[in-house]
Amino acid sequence: PLRYVRFGSRGDDLGIVARDLRPAGRAGEGGPAAWQVFVSVRSHAAEPRQVLVALRRGERTLAARRVELPPRGEAGVTFEERLEPGPIEVRLLPLAAGGELDPFPLDDVAYLVVPADLRPRIALLSEGPAPAWERALLAAGARIEPLPPGGDDPSLRLVVVEGRPPARLPPRDAILVQPSEQVGPLTPGPEVLRPRLTAWDRTDPALRFLELGDLERELASARPLTLAAGAKVLVQGQDAEGQPLVLAASYREGQARRIVLAFDPHQSAWPLKASFPIFVRNVLEAAVERAELPPGGVLAGAPLSVAVAREVHQAELRGPDGEERSLTARAGHVAVDGLTRVGHYRLRAGDYWVDFGVNLADPAEGEIAPAQRLETDAPQVEGVPERKRPFEVGRFFALFALIALTLEAWAYHRRW
Asked: Which pTM does this prediction carry?
């Protein structure tokens, strides 16, 4: 049978295997916003363990909980605190000061970042009033701002454009409402009066939980879209003669998703239906999820893309050890790799910067006990205990013989 040697003996590791950060309330006049910090701690020990879970900022402890962990089990911990924006950490500590916790300290700390603003920033471009979009965006928790003079802002999460789009769209997710000219692989056609909505893609994230059947005959007009390669149909319809129409579609431009509507919601009853604010919230949540770094941090070793200004071509990344390295920015994004060290990071691109944490979070990474058996294709794979190599004396006899031979040769030549 195939055999391997087991190294190590301890398997009593404790580790943080899940973490998250969610808002519990908005900031008030008296201080910062309230946040909930969720942590799951796992024990690989065969006996119950007790540990102190501390929420910290730098060397200051903000809150602490005493947790009892079952054998080879997990326990959850929740903190609810008012937290200033910036890096924080959750750390496992022994109950006794100076005591030993476990032999694998890397998963004893989780690195998180409290965001500076709870509301995603949205740019709304319209040639006239857009009350339906404003109400829906504000209801979804967005902060509506004008598009910056440079045409881009890395903190923007979504751009809504009514009518003719700008010559160059920012590299962010966008909703384009009845564009008057071609956008990407989509070309608007002649106006069609009273189109009939017939089907929509329920599997698309933007159309989740939507019922559009009540809009079957509610559209005043539309400019049906002609699709080229790279476009995806979202909503379909028919004209008065039963000819199929594309009433909404999407495409990707780099990492940004563009959703194009062939009709103006203001010229329909859609803003009065429950499906309209749900649609806006779906699009906004998907845009935020793609663009924002998770407050609970990213996994060590995972690739990462960070939004930066389109005109920026270089960024600086500072790691937890204080060292900096340069990264190249392309099309409004920076690809970050090589995140193998856990801790807090800061990426700076021009005047924009963002903090994020890198963590271990796989329960298998805490399995440090030597494996008794390997799962392979071999019929039998067994582990044998770690053994010290036997002491070899043969080499010393060989050295002694070589010395004796040398002395004999020296004596022989000296005699002659």
From this structure: 0.74
